[in-house]
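Example record used in the benchmark description.
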Amino acid sequence: IKLISNFCSLTPTEQKLAQYIIDNKESIVDMSLKDLSIKSNVSEATIIRLTKKIDLSGYSDFKLRLSASLVYPHDFKSIKDIYANDSPYEILNKITSSTCKALEYTNQIIDSLELEEAVTMISKTHKSNNNIIIVALGASSIIAKDLQTKFMRLNIDTIYYEDTHLSLESIIGIKKDDLLIVLSTLGKSIHAHHCM
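Model output (structure tokens):
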């Protein structure tokens, strides 16, 4: 359910409802529309409007999708739950579980139209022989290097510097039709925001 990716486009009342859903998703599966309306302190009409905004057909579809999203195991919260006395097999299972959850979460929050727009921008920039500049810092630099490698395998040239100063210099001369891809693992990097 794409509540998080659509959060900023929601009205304040819809945001309140979305936050209630995020915080109480396990119990909502068994609630009627009226129950959710009472518990979240919003109207039934607001709930229906929210389901439509996240591309669902209504409350039944919403509950079905919400229920399906809860099927994934929730016993492992973070990669930080790996301990020195864990066996190699336990560590493997924890890393696999964490990676699968991260991929599923990413799949849920990605807006398909925004994804298509990003791919179109990359393709258009590449075909017109303009620069594609990748900027990242810290842990995000690993993702940037991987992205650069994947683009290289597709014959798409990119500019990426691991050095902070060089990455900033690379965007100083950016032209109108160049493409800047800024990566931030958590979306909180001050460096990333300065680049944009």
